[in-house]
Each structure stands twice: as C-alpha cells, then as structure tokens.
Amino acid sequence: MDILCELYLLGVAGPELHPHDESHTFRFCPRCGGALEHRVLKITEPARLVCTQCGFVFYIDPKIAVGTIIEVDDGQLVLVKRAIDPGYGQWVFPGGYVDRGETLAAAAVREAREECGLDVRLEGLVNVYSYPGRAPVIVVYAATATGGTLCVDDEGLEVAALKPDDIPWHELAFRSTHDGLRDYLAGLRHPLHR
User: Fold this and answer.
1) Over the stretch 78-126, which tens digit does the pLDDT of each residue have?
2) What is the pTM (predicted TM-score) of this model?
3) Quick one: CA dihedral 56, 103, 128, 134, positive or negative?
4) pLDDT reading at 63 higher than 50
C-alpha cells in the first residue's frame, strides 16, 4: 500500500496532500543531487532522509502558519472563502505561512492585512494546533480590527463578517479552522508576552 493510501485511511489526508505534506516524494539531495534513502540514525527518532553520496541529513521540518480570528463590529468574526487549494471554496479565518526570519505576531498582522484588508491589534493567543501526518503547525491569535477596509486579495473569493451563530461550520476548510473557532468562542486566550 502506498503512503497516500495509508494516510488517507488513517484520516490524515484527503485524496490529495498539500505539497508541504508530501515529504515522502523527496528523492534527491538538495546539496549534491545524490539519491536520498530513509535511514534510522537514532533508535528513538523516526527514519530520516540521508544522501547516499555526501551523507547530508535532510530534515523535513514542519511549516509554521498563523491564523487570526478577527472581531469587528458587534462581535462579528471575519471569514474568507478560499480561492486556492487546498480548501477551494471553503471558509477560513485569515492566515498563512510565516516567512523565514519573521515573528509570529508580525506574520499574523501581515496575513490579516493581505487576506481581508484589515489592520488588527492582537489580543491573545488562542492556541497552537498540529495534527498527525500533517506538516503545518498553526498558531491562532485573537485580534480586534483597528482600521482598513474589509476586502479580499487574489487568494479569496469573498469575505464576510459573521455573528458566531452564522458560522458555516460544515463549510470550513481545515480542522484547525474548526478547532480555532471553537476554542475562541469558548473564551480560550493566552496572554501575549511583548
């Protein structure tokens, strides 16, 4: 059975994995171009990709993403309908990947501005989410809109400010979207250290 079938049966992947979840497809060393093979380097760790020519160990690290649950007028929350895969046509709170060298907080503020046009003030950390077999680690913040104009960029089909009772729970793109909104609405907030 191939790895995609195994992940699908375990419930950690749909029919298509996101490119960041496809670490099993790496075949060549990024340093010398030699063939990679799986080797157990330490009995307490998973097998690693190791170059058969130069010995380079290719660690497949997680991808760090941020999400921002933004409150606007009268307790409404901002959701964006995705115009890209994975999750095309489904709803998420604004978010995206953290750039190398960027702080988590700066990434959350940047992604909010890019994806829904709002300037935000971070109010607290909702939670950090990770799932078996998935590359992204998602850091979700609570925020309040402080300016800007609600709009979408090229990664969104539409944007909406919704009352909690109007959240389309069956149309959310990701497990982390569901879990983050659930925890936010339950009042989960961790203080931010500035």
Assistant:
1) 999 999 999 999 999 999 999 999 999 999 999 999 999 999 999 999 9
2) 0.82
3) negative
4) yes
Question: Is 158 a residue of the active site?
Answer: yes
Q: Which of 6, 37, 158, 171 is catalytic?
A: 158
Domain residue extents for the chain:
3-58, 63-185
Whether 165 contacts 74, CB under 8 Å: no
Q: How far apart are CA 15 and CA 21, in angstroms?
A: 12
CATH code 3.90.79.10 for 63-185: yes
Annotate the chain with three-state secondary structure. Answer: CCHHHHHHHHCCCCCCCCHHHCHHHCCECCCCCCEEEEECCCCCCCCEEEECCCCCEECCCCEEEEEEEEECHHHCEEEEEECCCCCCCCEECCEEECCCCCCHHHHHHHHHHHHHCEEEEEEEEEEEECCCCCCEEEEEEEEEEEEECCCCCCCEEEEEEECHHHCCHHHECCHHHHHHHHHHHCCCCECCCC
pLDDT, average across residues 119-144: 96
